[in-house]
Amino acid sequence: MNFPAPLVPGTLIKRYKRFLADVRLGDGEVVCAHVANSGAMTGLKDEGMTVWLSRSDNPKRKLAYTWELVEADGGIVGVNTSHPNAVVAEAIAAGRVPELTGYAAIKREVRYGVNSRIDILLTAPDRPRCLVEVKNVHLRRDRIGDGHVAEFPDGVTERGAKHLRELSDAVAVGDRAVMLFLVQRTDCTSFTLAADIDPAYAAAFAAARAAGVEALVYACAIDTSGLTLDHPLPLAL
Fold first, then answer.
1. How far is CA 122 from CA 1, 48, 77, 89, 182, in A?
2. Which of 143, 148, 212, 214 could tie 178 with a disulfide, CB 3.0–4.6 Å?
3. Do 72 and 89 share a domain, yes or no?
4. How far apart are CA 172 and CA 5, in angstroms?
5. Domain end: 18, 44, 78, which one?
6. CA dihedral (235, 72, 157, 163) positive or negative
7. Are strands 30-34 and 65-72 parallel, antiparallel or unpaired?
8. How far apart are CA 177 and CA 160, in angstroms?
9. Are 102 and 187 in a shared domain?
10. 134-183: per-residue pLDDT in tens?
C-alpha cells in the first residue's frame, strides 16, 4: 500500500483528545493533524519525536493532515490504524499470505455476528468461507531473553473481545475464522498478548483459540513511501 503523495516530516508537539496532534513542520508552521488511532500509543507520542504526515487536498476535510508514521526506537512505526485492512487485503490478493490462498473472492467490511463487520471475507465454491479479522499492532516491549516483542492490545478493548467471541461462533457453524495481527513496525522478533494490560482480552483469545479460531502474525515493511506486509512473526504465548 503506497501513500498517494509524499509524506511531510515534522516534529511532534503533543497528542491530545486521542484523535488530535499538534506538529511543527520544517518551516516552523504548527498544524493540527488527525490521529487515526484510539490506542495508548505507548512510547510513540513523546514530544520532540519526528513524525510523518500525509496531506489531503479535500476541501471537505476538517483537518488536512493525518499522522502516518513516527520515528521511534531507531526505526519507523506506522500509527494509522485505518491502513492494516488494506495492507492485508492487498497481500492476500497477491498470494503473499500462504495460509490464506486458494479463495476465489475477497470482500471487505461484510456484516456478520451481532452488529459487527468482518474486515475481510474470503470465499470459494469448494470450501467454507473464511472470516479474517485484522488487528493493528504497534506496541513493543522488551522482555529478558525474548528481545523486542510486539504486543496487543495497548489498552483495554472490549470491542476486540467481542470480535473474538463472534469468530468463535462462526467456527461453531462451520466457517473458518482467522485473527491476523499486523505489526506496523520492523524491529520485533515475536508477538504475544499484553495480558497485563487487558486480561479479559487475553482470556477471550485463549477461549477463541480453543474453539478453533486461528491466529496469524505478520510484520510490515515500512518506509515513507508506504506499507507492505512482510514476514510472519512467531506467536509466543
1. 20, 43, 29, 10, 18
2. 214
3. no
4. 44
5. 78
6. negative
7. parallel
8. 14
9. yes
10. 999 999 998 766 789 999 999 999 999 999 999 999 999 999 999 999 99
Buried b or exposed e, range 58-68, using 16+ CB within 10 angstroms:
eeeeebbbbbb
Find the CATH number of the domain harbouring 56: 2.40.50.580
d(CA 237, CA 231): 19
- Determine the Cα–Cα distance for residues 58 and 81; give it in Å rounded to an integer: 20
Residue 194 to residue 197: CA distance in whole angstroms: 5
Residue 138 burial class via C-beta count within 10 angstroms: exposed 0-12, middle 13-18, buried 19 and up:
buried
Residues 32 and 24: their CA atoms lie apart, in Å, by: 9
Distance CA 188, CA 181 (A): 13
Q: What is the pTM of this model?
A: 0.94
* Segment 192-214, tens digit of pLDDT: 999 999 999 999 999 999 999 99
Q: Is residue 65 part of a domain?
A: yes
Burial of residue 162 (CB within 10 Å: 0-12, 13-18, 19+) is middle
Residue 169: CA count within 13 A, CB half-sphere: 11
Domain-ending residue, one of 52, 78, 104? 78
91 and 202 in a common domain: yes
C-alpha cell at 171: 467456527
